[in-house]
Design a protein that fits this description.
This protein is an alpha/beta fold and 286 residues long. The protein has eight helices and eight strands; from the N terminus they run ββαβαβαβαβαβαααβ. The protein has one domain: NAD(P)-binding Rossmann-like Domain (Rossmann fold), CATH 3.40.50. Helix 2 links the parallel strand 3 and strand 4. The protein starts with a strand and ends in a 40-residue tail after the last strand. About 2% of the residues have low confidence.
């Protein structure tokens, strides 16, 4: 399902001067209809990547790609595809769609089961080999729950995220001399509508969780997406096999500070102006 972007609103963008950190590279982003996946898609497009957005909901995907096109009108190429990452045939077809672009996959796999992560990694590697790519970056999403225990049991989820770390680590070593890097993003709980609805007005339940963050707040999806952008770029060329923890210091804290919480950034998807325009540089529009 192709999506053709409208003309850029600003003549001077990161893409128009071809200086993006992912310029002309190809990316698959799963879970792209919202949260970390959507924020990652926006940043990837802003930084010059061709982006194939995948999710299980066609309606949510259409809304997400429209948001991306409004925020990054200079995007080189963006397409969407409905994909259930727990089904290998869906993942294989997803990667095959990117094959026509020339391969070179960055795969942010946001599956809640290990099987989906494995399917993404397997077919990403096969695509890289088909196109004789000398390098590539695969980023799997785990969680800080794979690193710390919790008194609120979620054993199956925790075990699955621990397995993602082990799988990612092994693949990183197996494929290191192929030039393919594997890293696992470990987010802390994020400020999402789902979490806020669950916490509701229960101040005690909210405080029990927020107190573990040195900043006094949950993370935002865009803060995870910025880490993914770094791991996908050549700037992280010597980072491989890592549990890449983005948690605001939560897993390093014992006694956290008192006082008001710090303010977090606004997610790109909540903005109304394009995010790819270059302003205030003194450079005339192209």
């Amino acid at each position: 399902m192709a999506a053709t972007p409208p003309p850029a609103k600003s003549g001077l963008t990161i893409n128009s001067i071809q200086m993006g950190r992912l310029h002309r590279k190809n990316a698959i982003v799963t879970g792209a209809a919202g949260g970390i996946g959507l924020e990652t898609s926006i940043l990837f497009a802003k930084e010059g990547a061709n982006v194939l957005m995948a999710d299980i909901s066609e309606t949510a995907l259409e809304k997400a790609v429209e948001t991306l096109r409004q925020l990054v009108p200079s995007v080189h190429r963006v397409e969407v595809r409905v994909c259930d990452v727990s089904r290998e045939a869906d993942v294989e077809a997803l990667v095959a769609q990117l094959d026509s672009w020339g391969g070179a996959v960055w795969d942010l796999t946001q599956a809640i089961n290990v099987k989906g992560v494995w399917f993404g990694c397997k077919h990403a590697v096969l695509a890289q080999r088909r196109h004789n790519k000398p390098s590539g970056s695969i980023i799997n999403t785990a969680s800080v729950v794979a690193l710390v225990g919790s008194a609120t049991p979620q054993l199956a989820y925790t075990a699955s995220k621990g397995a993602v770390l082990a799988l990612t680590r092994e693949l990183a070593i197996v494929h290191a001399r192929d030039g393919y890097r594997f890293n696992a993003l470990c987010p802390a709980p994020l400020n999402t509508p789902l979490l806020q609805d669950w916490l509701g007005d229960d101040k005690e339940k909210r405080h029990r969780r927020e107190v573990h963050f040195p900043s006094g707040r949950f993370g935002e999806a865009v803060e995870q997406a910025r880490a993914v952008l770094f791991l996908a770029s050549d700037e992280s060329s010597f980072i491989n096999g890592q549990d890449f923890v983005v948690d605001g210091g939560m897993t390093k804290a014992y006694v956290t500070p008192e006082g008001p919480a710090t303010a977090g950034p606004k997610n790109n998807a909540q903005l109304s102006e394009q995010v790819d325009a270059i302003r205030g540089t003194g450079i005339a529009d192209a």
